[in-house]
Amino acid sequence: xxxxxxxxxxxxxxxxxxxxxxxxxxxxxxxxxxxxxxxxxxxxxxxxxxxxxxxxxxxxxxxxxxxxxxxxxxxxxxxxxxxxxxxxxxxxxxxxxxxxxxxxxxxxxxxxxxxxxxxxxxxxxxxxxxxxxxxxxxxxxxxxxxxxxxxxxxxxxxxxxxxxxxxxxxxxxxxxxxxxxxxxxxxxxxxxxxxxxxxxxxxxxxxxxxxxxxxxxxxxxxxxxxxxxxxxxxxxxxxxxxxxxxxxxxxxxxxxxxxxxxxxxxxxxxxxxxxxx
Length: 277
Known about the structure:
Elements: E1 2-3, E2 6-10, E3 14-25, E4 31-45, E5 49-60, H1 64-70, E6 83-98, E7 101-123, E8 128-154, E9 157-169, E10 182-191, E11 196-205, E12 208-210, E13 222-224, E14 227-237, E15 242-249, E16 257-259, E17 262-263, E18 268-275
Antiparallel strand pairs: 1-3, 2-3, 3-4, 4-5, 5-6, 6-7, 7-8, 8-9, 9-10, 10-11, 11-14, 12-13, 14-15, 15-18, 16-17
């Protein structure tokens, strides 16, 4: 159960939300948390650039659905525990710096208790790997930077990108297992005509570590290498209700690993027909 009382102040160049987030957990574990819920926005350059500062916290409900959606290679008997964002601090700038060019730059520091981590649980006797969920039972800290750019050159051309840098300070585990510290996503969407749309995407994912070694008897963690993934697609509208599409994925045909022992698909083509009611 959540309760979020707050007071809002607003003027020509500023907005302030000041309140608290009260969260009551009950059932297998009972506890009450009171977190800050405050945000300030100030127009540094009216109509163009805004400064924002935020402090908040919350309890994130864990579920098998969320875990298996993130990692479909989990095993059985998964330990379920809610994670707690004890204090999330963020500050940054957002707005428009030129016609059609918007941006968002954020620095943040999050303190999380019971952070869930997916780690390999390889059974060498059976020859297959399933993942399990462990938790950093202390207070983990995540410091980072997010940056976003979106350039609409015209109504028919959109170019966008997002970059993430994260630094983890773990409390009780050795490493932020299977969490990359760098990720960049970018792409473009082109509206060629009323019937043809083209899109392209770029993903650069940094390296990560898994505690389970590839070789039996070893104690050295396994490094999951960084990779670059390029994809593209085209859609053709036959009528207002019927369209056909074709996606070409992993153009570089890389042996990308998101999860240890489970490489992503290599170069592949996927197509189909869409129908709108």
